[in-house]
Amino acid sequence: RGHTVVWHNQVPAWLTSGNYGAPQLSTILQGHITAVMGHYAGQVYAWDVVNEAFNDDGTMRDTIWYDQPGIGFAGGGTQYIERALNWAHAADPSAKLSLNDYN
């Protein structure tokens, strides 16, 4: 099982300190998912694609992906999760995909 492709707790400094707009972040996220999952395509039976997207109270976690209009629609959207799952499926169509959370 692959764990995890998109996680707020493991984002490189160049990404969080950069001044990227939603289209650029979308491209970066798609490229990351495609590279990692494409490399292991057919070798990993299941992936935790998005990890810990929710706070303990059930609200969406404030992350670089969620905060960007056009990716996460801050304040109420989950488009980045939907896109991540779609990109993951494209990268490894036979793998089982999940949204992982601890609570």
From TrEMBL:
The keyword Hydrolase applies. GO terms for biological process: xylan catabolic process. It holds the Pfam family Glyco_hydro_10. Residues 1-103 form the GH10 domain. Gene3D superfamilies: Glycosidases (3.20.20.80). The keyword Transferase does not apply. It catalyses: Endohydrolysis of (1->4)-beta-D-xylosidic linkages in xylans. It is an enzyme of class 3 (hydrolase). One of its GO terms (molecular function) is endo-1,4-beta-xylanase activity. Keywords: Carbohydrate metabolism, Glycosidase, Hydrolase, Polysaccharide degradation, Signal, Xylan degradation. InterPro entries: GH, GH10, GH10_dom. Its EC number is 3.2.1.8. Belongs to the glycosyl hydrolase 10 (cellulase F) family. This is endo-1,4-beta-xylanase. It comes from uncultured organism.
